[in-house]
Amino acid sequence: MKRIVLTDPNIKLLKSLNYTFSDTSLLEQALTHRSAAKKHNERLEFLGDAVLGMVIAEILYGKFPKLPEGKLTRMRSSLVKGTTLALIAQELEVGPLIKLGPGELKSGGRRRDSILADAVESIIGATYLDGGFQAAAKLIKHLFDKRLETLDPNQQIKDCKTQLQEYLQAKQISLPEYQVENIQGKDHAQTFCVSCDIKELNLKTLGQGRSRRIAEQEAAKQILEKIKND
After folding, report:
1. How many domains does the chain contain in total?
2. 133 and 38 share one domain
3. CA 20 to 30 Å from 20, out of 100, 127, 175, 183?
4. What is the Cα–Cα distance from 97 to 112, expressed in whole angstroms?
5. C-alpha–C-alpha distance, residues 2 and 151, integer Å
6. What 8-state DSSP symbol labels residue 32?
7. Band of pLDDT at residue 1, cut at 50, 70 and 90
């Protein structure tokens, strides 16, 4: 078991997480982007994503015993989606702690939702390896407590692609074209880059994510933000 000295900001993060690592190198790895080192957080992210989905599903199953599967699925999706995880990362002030390569630093990677969301999942994965399932579940409940309290099962949750489509249809504007621009990484840890192009509005964005669907949602989200700000 490896112990390393944590920096002061990491100690602050540990207090926010309400968890103490036995193997502190796992937290360091969870905060290391693949652009910064060979030993990075993608495998931890993969693990954390699976644990997060399982724990949230279990919580919702117990909290809403009469709800059908469809509503449970929509609520789980709203909680584990990238934008929610990025907000949690901002609340924890994770961004400044993430180790990035020079290119990602210059492009503002510490503010990018996908990188922030991945870091949160990686921290969950690191906690699972360090303390087991119960420790990871306790962390997840701690991070999502307020959001779980305010969940409304009757709220219609629409993803960014659906919101964008409905907006364009209301304005009688042609629907956007989504195109995969490139795919990076190995099969088990790919990053998709997808463009969203609305020619009538002369708007085009690029979204990144660990699947085509996530990348499309990110690109649509950026278009919606541009529309709202204009």
Report:
1. 2
2. yes
3. 100
4. 13
5. 40
6. B
7. very low
Q: Which residue range forms the structural domain that includes residue 165?
A: 160-229
pLDDT in tens, 105-136: 888 888 888 899 999 999 999 999 999 999 99
Residues 128 and 224 in one domain: no
Write the DSSP string, 148-182. HHT--TTS----HHHHHHHHHHHTT-PPPEEEEEE
State how far Cα 188 lies from the chain centre.
17
Which sequence positions are flagged as catalytic? Answer: 49, 121
What's the Cα-to-Cα distance from 167 to each of 9, 155, 160, 171, rounded to whole Å? 42, 19, 10, 6
CA-closest candidate to residue 126, choices 15, 47, 37: 47
Check residue 188 and give its pLDDT.
Answer: 66
CA distances to 13, 24, 88, 90, 213 from 27, in Å: 10, 5, 17, 17, 28
- Which residue(s) pair with 208 in the sheet? 193
Nearest Cα residue to 76 out of 89, 94, 63, 91: 63
Q: Which residue has the tokens 């999502």?
A: 144
8: three-class secondary structure by DSSP: helix
Q: CB of 208 within 8 A of CB of 193?
A: yes
* Contact criterion met (CB below 8 Å) for 3 and 24: yes
**Which among 122, 149, 176 is the end of a domain?**
149
Helix axes 160-170, 212-229, angle to 10 degrees: 50
Q: How many residues make up the chain in this entry?
A: 230
**Is 121 found in the same domain as 201?**
no
